Amino acid sequence: MSRILLVSCLVLGLAACTGGDRTPAGPGGPGSPGPTAPYAFAAEAPGVPDGFREMRCPDLRGDGTGLTVRLVVPVATTGGQQSGNVCSYSHGYVRGVGVELGPDETLADYRAEELDPFEDIGGDDEVSDIAYRADAPGLDGRPAEELTYRVYNDGLPYRQVTVQSAGVRLGWSVPDERPRRLDAFDVVRRSVGVDAGTTSLCPSWGRPDRATLVFTPPPDVGWIERERGHCRIYVEGAPTVLEYGAVHPAPGPLEDLAARVRRDPEATRVRLRRGAGEIDGESADRLTWVVVRTEETETYEPPGTWRIVALQSPSARVEWGATPQWWRAHRSTYDDLVASVRVSPGPPSRP
Predict the structure, then answer these.
(1) Largest alpha-carbon pair distance within the chain?
(2) Going by C-beta distance under 8 Å and a sequence separation of 6 or more, which residues neighbour residue 136?
(3) pLDDT beneath 70: ranges in the chain
(4) Is 326 buried (19+), middle (13-18) or exposed (0-12) by CB count in 10 A?
């Protein structure tokens, strides 16, 4: 199981984690009427309290809702993944917050179909301590379904609490031996709001007051994952890691990146141009290079030619890698991504 799927499963309790290829119960299934369709609404508590940082969960599906969930997560959160209409924010494999925008089933349906058959069966996939209520504190002033349980999944026992209200499913998971910290979960719940449009957020590592980048991901790109201080945009179906996007909220000097690229034996046509563009009103330099690979690598990276572009201002770097054919046909995708970037609150401070 991939790390992104594992983390999403743990923080949301998705059906893919409970074994088998069963089809989840849809609206009108056992237990209750269908779920509420998502819509825009304001958060009960829109601020960012001490010990938390703001995040956004966009619906990345091209034919999706066109909405974005805004919420806060604990500062200790170091990982983040966004895929389709699901986002997860984790600290380790079994500790985190999960969000799903527009789930296609109620929690009552989910319990009946995906949890009850595995209650107290022993061994992997065992579920226990299941509790359900339909009148928990919810979102936008509406009551929520609430489902709590313990699961022994792939040798990683954890406890889960999930609420569903106003077209949003919100989950909180912790290792079995840790307290559930429901007071912190309530802070997260009250911070949830839904905005029109699709915007993502890439925070800097470290203190929550450091710079954050807000941007609009291209639709149907695949998924976004926070990696080593930046947010990488994975392209669905790409045969190589050289087809990607990336947004950096606290980049190192572009000259250092240029030096590393020049040491790459596969890189050619390395060019650094000053003042070639701008990001959020700041002048930006552009580094471009071409990777030419004549045969498949030991890690099964295919042969081919790819052009990489990195545009960097004092506050941000935006990269994109693709074939020359893609650049000729879809250059506007990268230009739109660059134009969408906003820096908040401003240039990052030195660590």
Answers:
(1) 64
(2) 143, 144, 145, 146, 163
(3) 1-33, 92-95, 155, 177-182, 205-210, 346-351
(4) middle
